């Protein structure tokens, strides 16, 4: 790509970034307060926590203490904070809460995948999934970033649910913390100590880069070394290709990137991932080439859902290899997970094998993702809730 074209992509990004941020504000989450006016401390940055405690009259050193109890110890009651004297505990409880979403339902699949339907303070709901590794004590927590989604990817059940609102930082971190409550994984394991809930994938409901500020704040909290302390290498942000925000996520967060590619021709991707009409394949791939956190040790993942007779030919596998040549990348092939009313079928095993072999022969790792949690509609692209936006005119 020429330097001139690169520049035009970046200029487009500036204008688009402003538009995306304005749109984000329309779907802002409610204030994180309880009905009796107490403020939720979960989801505040360190600076915000310090300011909230100072306003209540607490000394500056309390910030570190409270942070440790919330994010390292997993305390949800101030009375558990044994390094803080009783009168101060009581004062904290008068002003604040340490929130968690409540689980409306919890389902565990025959393959041990667990799915929560979490309800937030305003009654809206989103789903979170834990996918344990079958062979080792570790696993991925798939977190939602929005209630519903604006993007309507055709293979995705969530895409049939209109965007209700963005999730706040407290609600995003809260999903991970509530999942850890469920497995009793507190205090946060230190350093390389094995963790059951060892990685976060932002691949649940919603497009995380359409809710960037809240996602970024939540991930900054999760990465803080004096709390949950999950390294940026263990966090993967999945996007359908919101090009201007990919640059920002790369430079500010440096987490791993996954891109929902799913097609190698613009005419087909326009249909499967409609966002392609705004950011076509050429621009998405260019943003991947610029992505600062990509290296051989931290490859970009290209997600490719295998749809029978739609995108699974050998010619398309060769074109995929040509498109991503030179990018430190791996290609996740995802056999399509059907949902009620879905318009596609899963590719045959033979087609998936052929596709995978072509990608592998070109030097890219190309694992076929084993479907997990299909029996509880927890697999990739199957999440959906009944939440609706009240004022339909704004949807
Ligand atoms: S795949 Fe992701 S971005 Fe596309 S509709 Fe589903 S949740 Fe939204």
Describe the structure.
- This protein folds into 2 domains: 55 residues, Orthogonal Bundle (DNA polymerase, domain 1); 286 residues, TIM Barrel, CATH 3.20.20.70.
- It is of the alpha/beta class.
- The longest helix has 24 residues.
- The N terminus and C terminus are likely disordered.
- The protein contains 11 helices and 13 strands.
- α10 runs parallel beside α11.
- Strands 3-4-5-6-9-10-11-12-13 form a 9-stranded mixed β-sheet, with helices on one face.
- The chain is 34% helix and 15% strand.
- Bound molecules: iron/sulfur cluster.
- The site of iron/sulfur cluster (SF4) has 13 residues, from loops.
Q: Could you outline the blueprint of secondary structure elements for this entry?
A:
Blueprint: H1 3-26, E1 39-40, H2 46-56, H3 62-72, H4 86-95, E2 96-97, E3 102-108, E4 114-119, E5 125-132, E6 139-142, E7 146-147, E8 165-166, H5 169-183, E9 199-202, H6 212-223, E10 235-239, H7 243-252, E11 256-260, H8 266-272, H9 281-290, E12 300-306, H10 314-324, E13 329-335, H11 349-361
Parallel strand pairs: 1-2, 6-9, 9-10, 10-11, 11-12, 12-13
Antiparallel strand pairs: 3-4, 4-5, 5-6, 7-8
The structure holds iron/sulfur cluster.
What can be said about this structure in brief?
With 395 residues, the chain is of the alpha/beta class. It has helices at 3-26, 46-56, 62-72, 86-95, 169-183, 212-223, 243-252, 266-272, 281-290, 314-324, 349-361; strands at residues 39-40, 96-97, 102-108, 114-119, 125-132, 139-142, 146-147, 165-166, 199-202, 235-239, 256-260, 300-306, 329-335.
